[in-house]
Design a protein that fits this description.
The chain is α/β, with parallel strands linked by helices. It has seven helices and six strands; from the N terminus they run αααααβαββββαβ. Strand 1, helix 6 and strand 2 form a beta-alpha-beta unit. The longest helix is centred in the middle third of the chain and has 12 residues.
C-alpha cells in the first residue's frame, strides 16, 4: 500500500504525517508484476508475440492458486475479504469440489462486479444467486490521475466497500472523499 499511496493517490498522503494503523485491516495488494512471476512462462510467451498485450482480469484466474490464497486468509478469521479483480465469463466454466465451494462461497468473501454501458450489473462467476456476495467495484481517478474519492454505485449492487464493512453510503451524497481524519 505504501507504493500505491506514493504513486496513485493525492499529495495529502505525503504531507499528512504518520498515521495510526488499524490492526483490523489488512490489504493484500497484488500488482500485475507480482502475479506475472507466477505466470512467467505464459506471460513471457504472450509478451514476445505482442509487446502491447493487455491482459483481462480473467488471465489472473487460477482456481488452485485462488483456493489456496483465500483458504489461507480465511484461516486467520477475517471479518471480510474483498476480491477487487473481476472474474467474469473470461475464466470459463467453473467446476468446484466441496472444499472449493466452501471457500469460494464463504459468506465473508465478496467478489467484484462490474457495470455495463447501460449501468446494469455484470456478475462474477462466483456470484451467489441472491448476489449477497457481490459488490460493484469502480475506482474513479480525477483528471490528474489521482484517487481522491469513492463514488457510490448507481446500479442495483452496493459498492464492494459497503458489502465488506456492512456500512452504507449516505443516499444524499454523490461522492465521498477518502483518507481524511
Amino acid at each position: 500500500m505504501y507504493n500505491d499511496e506514493k504513486t496513485n493517490c493525492d499529495t495529502r498522503f505525503k504531507i499528512r504525517g504518520a498515521q495510526a494503523a488499524n490492526q483490523e485491516v489488512v490489504i493484500l495488494w497484488l500488482k500485475p508484476a507480482d502475479v506475472n512471476r507466477y505466470y512467467d512462462m505464459r506471460t513471457q510467451t504472450l509478451i514476445q508475440l505482442n509487446e502491447l498485450t493487455e491482459f483481462s482480469d480473467g488471465f489472473y484466474w487460477d482456481q488452485k492458486l485462488w483456493f489456496q490464497l483465500l483458504k489461507t486468509i480465511l484461516a486467520q478469521n477475517p471479518k471480510s475479504i474483498g476480491v477487487s479483480v473481476f472474474f467474469g465469463d473470461s475464466i470459463g466454466k467453473l467446476e468446484l469440489n466441496r472444499k472449493e465451494t466452501e471457500v469460494f462461497m464463504d459468506p465473508r468473501i465478496f467478489w467484484a462486479s462490474q457495470a455495463n454501458s447501460f449501468d446494469q450489473i455484470i456478475t462474477p462467476r462466483l456470484a451467489k444467486t441472491d448476489l449477497s456476495n457481490v459488490g460493484q467495484y469502480e475506482v474513479y481517478r480525477d483528471e490528474d490521475g489521482f484517487v481522491r474519492k469513492i463514488v457510490p454505485a448507481w446500479i442495483e449492487s452496493p459498492h464492494l466497500t459497503e458489502k465488506m464493512t456492512g456500512l452504507h453510503f449516505p443516499e444524499d451524497s454523490v461522492s465521498h472523499l477518502i483518507n481524511f481524519r
